Amino acid sequence: MTTVSVVTPSGKGGADVELPGEIFGAKVNIPLIHQVVVAQEAAARQGTHATKTRGEVRGGGKKPYRQKGTGRARQGSLRAPQYAGGGTVHGPVPRSYEQRTPKKMKAAALRGALSDRTSHGRLAVVSAFVEDGEPSTADALTVLRTAVGEAGARLQRPVLVVLAADDEVARKSLRNIPRVRVLDSGQLNTYDVLVCDHVVFTQAALAEFVARTGGGELVTVDKPAAKPARAAKPKAVDGEDTEKPAAKPARAAKPKAVDGEDTEKPAAKPARAAKPKAVDGENTEKPAAKPARAAKPKAVDGEDTEKPAAKPARAAKPKAAAEEGEEPAAKPAKAPSSRARKTATASATESADDSGADAAPPVVKQRSSGTSRKSASSGSGAAKEEQQ
After folding, report:
1. pLDDT digits (tens, 9 = 90+) for 60-70
2. Helices (H), the chain
3. Domain CATH for 136
4. What is the mean pLDDT of residues 107-136?
5. Given Cys at both, which of 86, 106, 140, 358 links 173, Cβ 3.0 to 4.6 Å?
6. What does the pLDDT read at residue 321?
7. What's the half-sphere exposure (Cβ side, CA atoms, 13 Å) at 372?
8. Enclosing domain of residue 177
């Protein structure tokens, strides 16, 4: 919703008017606006154009010459279209150019045109153009220039002024100003809004238009009262004492030191305690240092120093004592590894070969096939027959 300030004839600030968003904040549909404007301009045409045909032209009832024997083309009338002063062929006839446009399309186009002027800041509201009851063109022009924002004596752009139906004083005051078009609130249309650069409503006309288009009642917001101006400072007159406002108390100056006097200085911030230096013959306490790691004690001649307990060493292999005849118990032998096993097996095989070289080789039973078995059986049978 857009708010517009109301311009008064006296020049003082008036109230603010809230423009309904459904009328002055609608979507602008350019093709629709074009169609409505074309229809409006077409309806403004009179359509009284007309021409006369050869039958409507005066004269030409006599055949100009005989049909045959002249050598010329045959003619029946001197008012034929090919003759000067003859009739017109297919000329215009009176007709109406009016186009049927739905009411809702006209209303939507008007809302779009007003919304376009409002969005560009070219819509203004005036409480009245003349304060007195008598028409005054000069007063009305002054108010109109203020509303439009032009400072020249004449308006540079066309302005559309919308008045209430019964506001005759404002109508007479504005009707003689060039580039000003005056309409009633009921006559407001899309074409006139687009032709003029600025649209100015009176407050009464705006209320009528909003009520007619279904926008509800016009909302008026009063401005808050202005703050009173500050009183001007009186000027000093010769021979008179003017009271000046009490000045702010100045800050107390720091007193300077006088010879022989002790001046109290403000307490300074306590400084950090300095580290005391060592004086000859005096023992100064130093801050406790971090405990250092205990150093390994060195051996002193003639003194036994306690050494830290060493890690237990592995048990050494017991050696045979010359004086004692007891032998230490031997540790159980570890199982030979795979390589040791192979070497032991190989050595055992060699020793067995050497010892049993003279002995007869062991009998190895060989598995015979079926033929060998048959030969063996046949051989054994032949042997038995010889023995018998």
Report:
1. 999 999 999 99
2. 21-24, 30-43, 103-119, 137-148, 168-174, 190-195, 203-212, 338-355, 370-387
3. 3.40.1370.10
4. 92
5. 140
6. 41
7. 4
8. 2-45+99-219
